[in-house]
Every structure is written in structure tokens, then in C-alpha cells.
Amino acid sequence: MCGIVGYIGKRNSLPVLLEGLKRLEYRGYDSAGVAVINSDSDIIFFKKAGKVKELESEFNKDLLNGNVGIGHTRWATHGEPNDTNAHPHFDEGRNIFLVHNGIIENYLSIKKKLSLEGFSFTSDTDSEILTNLVEYHFRHKNDFEVAVRMALTEVEGTYGIACICKAEPDKIIVARMGSPLMFGVGIDETIISSDAAAIVNYTKNVIYLEDGEFAVIRKGGFQLKTIKDEHIMREAQRIEYDLAEIEKGGFEHFMLKEICEQPESIQNTYRGRINFDTGLVKLGGLETVKDKLLSAKRFIITGCGTAWHAGLVGEYMLERYCRVPTEVEYASEFRYRQPIINSDDVVFVISQSGETADSLAAMKEAKRLGATTVGIVNVVGSTIAREVDAGTYIHAGPEIGVASTKAFTSQLMSLALITLMIAQNKGTIKERELDEMLRELKMLPDKIRQIIEKHKEYEFVAEEFKDSRNFLYLGRGFNFPVALEGALKLKEISYIHAEGYPAAEMKHGPIALIDENMPVVFIAPKDSTYDKIISNIEEIKARKGKIIALANDGDEDIKRYSDYIIHVPRTAPIFAPILNSIPLQFLSYFIATARGCNVDQPRNLAKSVTVE
Ligand code: G6P
Fold first, then answer.
1. How far is 355 from 160, CA to CA, in rounded Å?
2. Domain-located, residue 606
3. CA of 352 to the centre of ligand 1 (A)
């Protein structure tokens, strides 16, 4: 969701802002804008609907020559993505310029109050109201910092903001409530951002703002405070982030790069966490809550989108191998249905970004009700990672493509490790079965490599079906959530309508859609569900649907029933969703690129949804 950047230091700020915006564009890309305090203390701004590239090509860069500036790339909440609604926003007198991520919920009542005071507005955004509220207080107090603080005590909702003031051109003020904001402390310069990706090129020393905090940043340093004006001391945290990891590295798209990184990302998830000699699984981050995990009466898994799908696989794993009742909840629903939670429950929160607003809110609600909260998060130092009782990082590395790929498979691997750790300690898994799993685990990276090598097969199938208008994905057991995720990947990036279903459930509705134009992807590994899946395939075939079967290497029988076959190596059932997801990621990728879609930045989506 919206990206924020800011720069104050000795360099010309514009190139830093533009580079930062490009790095953050995966978070939102409806429109973009920058505002810079020039050497003559005038503030010059440019903003435009569309991508950062379009913004850049539109204006004369020589006009923005100061070393204090802010920028924004937007994912629209209030108001359509047009030039006027783009950030930065400013007041009529062009004194305050502000970029905002989040939602100001009481913006209408503030707008009414400001209108009565003679303020006028040009955009449809809540962010412009906040900007004018700061200006309103500035007119009364003649102090930028006080004005921001007073404005923030009046607003309800969420925000990450960066703002500058023409009358006080030596500073940028930033604040946070529910939307990520941080700044990198370099030598004689500070780089502000909502995401470390825009900072790491300049410094690895980062200060994360907590909710209710704000910072006044000058060329010579910064002051961190609460919005109640209490001073805060905080050391910068060193972040380990390799710039090469957030570049495309020769691939045409981040999504393709990230799909192809999975042999390594999966290995990074389990590296150092399994002793292959003793068979013991140890997750350092969960040691403090291990007793809770072993005595829990119930597990609840929550998350959004792809993370929720990972949770569904987790439910199969935890119930089958740990024998603990497990429920999976959409984070967006969880807290609104007065959930019955108690201190014997463990709530797992899965989130790639660690910033998804609904997942964060669900986590807080679970905590409030007394449950133990455990994060399964990718982005190190993110809000969810910081606020859970304990957690495990999935270590998938930065994921930039909006459609999640390697983070999903690493979430599955993390869930498998948690399952094995609990099952071992509770004695709910047979030693033989565990040995077999660990043997399979060691072979997974190579099996993923074999899948990647066969990308031509998926490309061929994609070419055949790129013009289809609908798709159905069917699977059973562990592979039912894989079907859901396969369908989600396809619709996200190709805009083809797709649905995932448990294969048998298909008879209760979706079968009505089957005709010779309907491709149906069956996830049909040779496991205990195989014969049943074959019956479901027959049911579709009888109605002339086109069958694309994902089958195990060596399964020749399935040829009789299928129009197209995608072969996947066999593995233990607990890891099958990891392997089976990858060809489906490729299939979506190739279909979307064949249709000319922008796979890294699909329309209307954002990588990290930091509003409810
Ligand atoms: C957005 C992204 C999805 C992601 C979901 C949850 O919708 O486009 O790819 O699965 O948010 O994000 P999280 O960062 O919490 O995993």
C-alpha cells in the first residue's frame, strides 16, 4: 500500500526520492508525486496519475534542486487515481506539503470544521484534509512541530506521514499510527520511507517508528517523540538487506525471478533449524513459547490472501501430525465476530510483509483476549514481527512481485517445521514417518530445480489456454488450498476469472459451468486421494471440460484422462503443496505474460495492504 519517501541531507534530494519511489512502487502504483524545498526555500512539486516513470518523463528535473523533499506512490483509498488526488497534498497557501499512507476516518467532520474556517479543497482525499488541518494549527501556533502534533491528536484512523513546511524549511516531520514508517540514519543525511527497500542503498542503520510516535528530522540529526511530546531515546537497528536481492538480476520480471529462487528460499527457511543427525527440529524464535505450543488446546491461524491459503495447508498439517484442533480465520473477519479465545489458545499470524492492517489487528485482538500469538513473517523488523509474543521468520528474502510466490512456499515450509517440532515433542508422529519426511526434505531444493527446468511445458499449456475466460482448479486434502492459491495467482495477474474448489465439492455447483471451453486444473498426486481425484476427472471429462492434470513423475495412467499433463516429482504429503504450487505459479505467469499483462504490478492490487 502507498509508498512514502523523504530525504534531508547534503545531496540533491530529487534523485533519491525518484529512486526510492521506484523501489516502493510495488506497494502501490496508481499515481506518484514529489515535493522539494528548493534552495530559495520555495516548494516545487510534481504529481501525476500513473507510474513513477510517467511522472519522471513529465517534468523538468532542474526545477527541483533542493536537498529536502518528500515523495509518494499511491494505492487509492479515497478518490480515484488522478493527478489531483495524487500526493503530496498541500494547503491553498502552499505552506504545508504532506504525503500520507493510511485512512483518516473522521475526515468528513474535520473537513466541515475547516470549511467553516474558510479552507477549500481540490481533491477527494482524506489526506488533503489532514494537510489542511496541520496548516490550520500552524496559522494559530506558528510552529510546524506543534501544528503537526495538534493535528494528529484530532484525527482518528491510521497514518504514516511525512510533511514539510515552507515557513520552516529546515526539517521534515514524520509520524506513524498503524502504517509503517522508518528512517535510515546516514552520515549527514536521513532517508525516510515506509519500507526499508528505499533506504538500504544509503544506509543500513534504521529507526522504526512505533504507533503514536513522530520525529522531527533536520540536517544535523533528529528528535524522536510521542505525539504527546514525550522524548524517546532509540538506537538505530542494523538491517541485513542486500540490494542485489531487490533487483531483477537479469530476469524479465520480479515474479519470474522469485519463482526461480525457490530452491534457495526453501532451503533458507529450514537451514539451521533441523539437526539431520538427530532428526530434531528447533525453532529458536519459538523457544520462549514452546510450553504453550505443546500444551495448547487449540490452534488458530490467521492471515490474508495467500497467507490465508498457507494457513489452510497449516490446518491439515497441525491436525494430522500434532492432533490439535486447528481453525483458520480470515484476519479481516476474526476480530469482528467476537471470537471465543482463551489463554490455552495459540494464534499464528502469517504475513509476508508483517504490515497487513487486518492481520495486525487480528493479532492484537488475540493478544487482548489472552492467547499466545506467534508470527510467521518474512520482513524482518516489521510491525507484526515486533508485536507478537514469539515468532519465526520464513527467510524467503525480499519479495517484490505483487503476486506472492516464494513467500507462500516458505510459509508452507515454516508451518511444516512448526508442525514437526510440536509433533516430535508431543510424540504424535511415528519415528519412521518423521525419518521419511526429513529424507524428503533434504531432496526438496533439487526437486524444485527439476520443476523449474520444465518451464517450457508450462509455457506450452499457457499458450493453449491464454484466451480462456474462466478456469477451475481442483484438489483434495493438502492440495485443496493449493487449488485455491493456483486460482488466486491466475486471477491476480492475468485477470482471468478462476476458482479453486475441493475436487469433490465441485459436484455441488461449479460442475454447472463445465463445457468444452472450461479448462480445469486437477492437482492429482499419487497419494491417498488419487483414486477419488480420478473419478472427479472423469466427471469433468464426461461434460467435455479440458483437463490439465498436475501428476507425479511416472504417472502414465493419468494420460488416459487428461488433455495436458504437468509432471511434478513425488514427495511426502506434508511437502507436496510446496512442489505442486510451483508449476501453477509458472502457469499463471506465462498466461499473464502471453496476454501482455504487467505481472509485477497487476491492476488495483498492492503488495502490502496497510489499510483495513
Ligand atoms: C495482498 C497481496 C497478497 C498477500 C496479502 C497478504 O493482498 O497482494 O499477495 O498475500 O496482501 O499480505 P501479507 O504481507 O500479510 O502476507
1. 12
2. no
3. 7
351 lines ligand 1 (CB under 6 A): yes
Same domain, 464 and 380: no
Which pLDDT belongs to residue 80?
Answer: 79
The tens digit of pLDDT for each residue in 390-447 reads 999 999 988 988 899 999 999 999 999 999 999 999 999 999 999 999 999 999 999 9
Which of 301, 379, 402, 404 should be mutated for ligand 1, with most atoms under 8 A from CB? 404
559 is catalytic: no
What's the pLDDT at 15?
95
**What is the arithmetic mean of pLDDT over 363-378?**
96
Query: 607 C-alpha to center of ligand 1: Å?
Result: 6
Residue 367 known to be catalytic: no
Q: pTM score, two decimals?
A: 0.81
Range of the domain at 74: 3-239
122 CB neighbour count, 10 Å cutoff? 11
Catalytic residue among 171, 489, 491, 607: 607
Residue 603 within any structural domain of the chain: no
The confidence score (pLDDT) of residue 244 equals 66
Please report whether residue 440 resides in a domain. yes
The CA 359 to ligand 1 mean position distance, Å, reads 10
Please check whether residues 16 and 93 belong to one and the same domain. Answer: yes
Picking from 432, 452, 472, the residue at the C-terminal end of a domain is 452
- CA–CA gap between residue 60 and residue 320 (Å, rounded): 62
Answer for the pair 450, 282: CB distance below 8 angstroms, yes or no.
no
Q: What per-residue confidence (pLDDT) applies to 493?
A: 94
> Does any domain span residue 100?
yes
The order of strands in the sheet holding 298-303 is 326-330, 298-303, 345-351, 372-377, 390-393
What are the strands of the beta sheet with 519-524, ordered from one edge? 497-502, 470-475, 519-524, 546-552, 564-568
Q: Which of 588, 608, 612 is the pocket-test mutation for ligand 1 (most atoms within 8 Å of CB)?
A: 608
CB atoms within 10 A of CB 516: 8
Percent of the chain with pLDDT over 90: 75
